[in-house]
Amino acid sequence: MMARAIWSGFISFGLVSVPVGLYSATEEHQLDFHQFQRGTSDRIRNKRVNERTGREVDYEKIVKGHDVGGGEYVIVEQQELADIAPGRSRSLEISRFVDLDEIDPIHFQKSYYLAPSDAGNASSYGLLRDALAKTNRAGIASFVMRSKEYLAAIRADGKVLVLETMFFADEIRDPAKELGDLPAKSSATKQLKMAVDLVEAMSGTWRAGDYKDSYTERVKKLVADKRKGKEIVLSEEAPEATTTTDLVTALRASVEAARSRRAAGKKAPAKKTAGAKRTPAKKAAAKKTAPKKSAAKKRAA
Questions:
Q1: What is the C-alpha to C-alpha distance for residues 55 and 20, in angstroms, rounded to an integer?
Q2: Ku domain: from which residue to which, for each copy (predicted)?
Q3: pTM of the predicted model over 0.85
């Protein structure tokens, strides 16, 4: 069964309009908890209550009000919000195409999939997707959804178009103002070289599947253990800050440990194929070492 679109409208670029539906691309791990009064089995409920009368109010009877100061509010109906942007709420208007690499990731907010909502116009969807993939560009667009205007980047990802909602420039905080003085560029040559060595030793290929939500699994185990009446044992302690005097020692030990793990990881496949035919295993090993030598020469150069 196909997912239900949370928004539907048109991608517009130039004089071309492509009907599309917007779908959630992600879902977060979440273990739901209800609220209880401690020592009882009494649930805590959140209700919409009129602060003057103390009576609960039905959702349909609630309107929005904007605080304009002095205890005065301007009341706005949901329909009024929809009426001021009837076209914008049905159109993803691409105003410019930009190189994907030029967009700072801090602007990205949430990912959605875009899918053609009309089979007759699927070719237009495919054309835009393939053009974006070939040029490594994203279409910058704006649209209105749920009474809010969004800035968005539309990019190609395999067979699908992905829409990334984005923060506007004035929504991103200035670190200089928010965080105060930050450390200057490092002048400690030895420590910097060791830090670079550690980064290199810990580098690898990005594979999203390598990372799991271990905290949620721990929460599930906590619930299961408490249900069975088991004793809860803390398995880890919070880390402590590395002092300046211990920094070099910590970096050196980290580099050595990372290199050892990498070496062990490279040997693992060879052990796996040892029980199979020996000749192909040797050939595969020879092929693997060739690029490493050339990479080492590049670094030396």
A1: 43
A2: 54-184
A3: no
